[in-house]
């Protein structure tokens, strides 16, 4: 069973945090112990609420941060601005492996998109996923890509999948971070086309999170998260989370 789920995105602000919370809530509902980690949290002051606090609130799981920096920028630049250091890749791996000792799954949320440098040496969340995979053996890591629903997402999604592939890290699937409310795909040809694009990717569309999901009450969020990852074809998209469920939860648990 896979231990680490690395949640990356096609960009910043695509819904990684809500997707991380939804994945954590889904795993928890399946009886798994889950923790979440944000290796580099930028744009948040000490005492303010960061992405992990949001995931904690929505999904009811515990969590950790590798480093927190106040400027809303990429990690290396944010660290330079305040003269702070950054954890090394080995520091991140050690912290995450520590978290994995006491949890069935560690869900890791990157900062921005796949190739944003997280360390002074320029390593990215893709390098972190590779390091965890090497450490944990084959199949120890799932990489999930969160993508936008609207115009521009085809290019960003394909670039991200290609970059993963090039690094020998197949994506386990894609999550649409925020699908506009009230089924506008019926009247919006761009959304209709994008839905078909996502459904025909070589990797599964795992979930299509409704716009405003992060504003749901946590109890409701946790109930709905099960439906977002359900196998049935309903609502806006037919979803294919069976493979991920099997990898994360074991055989015969794809519902
Ligand atoms: N609790 C929330 N309620 C409503 N909207 C939210 C909430 N949290 C985030 N959003 C909005 O959802 C969108 C996606 O934000 P999110 O934090 O999920 O992005 P992200 O992909 O995690 O980016 P980052 O790289 O900063 O981690 C943003 O436009 C943000 O303003
Ligand atoms: C501050 C922001 N919300 C993220 N945490 C950091 C995003 C870095 C993106 C860098 C880039 O791709 O240009
Ligand atoms: Mg986030």
From TrEMBL:
List the EC numbers from the record: 6.3.3.3
Q: Where in the cell is it found?
A: Cytoplasm
Output the Gene Ontology cellular-component terms. Answer: cytosol
Which positions in this protein are listed as binding substrate? 42
Q: Which GO terms describe its molecular function?
A: ATP binding; dethiobiotin synthase activity; magnesium ion binding
> Pathway listed for it?
Cofactor biosynthesis; biotin biosynthesis; biotin from 7,8-diaminononanoate: step 1/2
Family annotation (SUPFAM superfamilies): P-loop containing nucleoside triphosphate hydrolases (SSF52540)
Catalytic EC class: ligase
Query: Where, in this chain's numbering, is Mg(2+) bound?
Result: 17, 51, 109
Q: Where is the active site?
A: 38
Cofactor(s) this protein cannot do without = Mg(2+)
Q: What does this protein do?
A: Catalyzes a mechanistically unusual reaction, the ATP-dependent insertion of CO2 between the N7 and N8 nitrogen atoms of 7,8-diaminopelargonic acid (DAPA, also called 7,8-diammoniononanoate) to form a ureido ring.
Among InterPro entries, the record links this protein to: DTB_synth_BioD, P-loop_NTPase
Superkingdom: Bacteria
Q: Where is it mainly found?
A: cytoplasm
Gene name of the encoded protein = bioD
Q: What is this protein called?
A: ATP-dependent dethiobiotin synthetase BioD
- The residues that the entry says bind ATP are 13-18, 51, 109-112, 177-178, 211
**Is Phosphoprotein included in the keywords of this UniProt record?**
no
**What CDD domains does the database record attribute to this sequence?**
DTBS (cd03109)
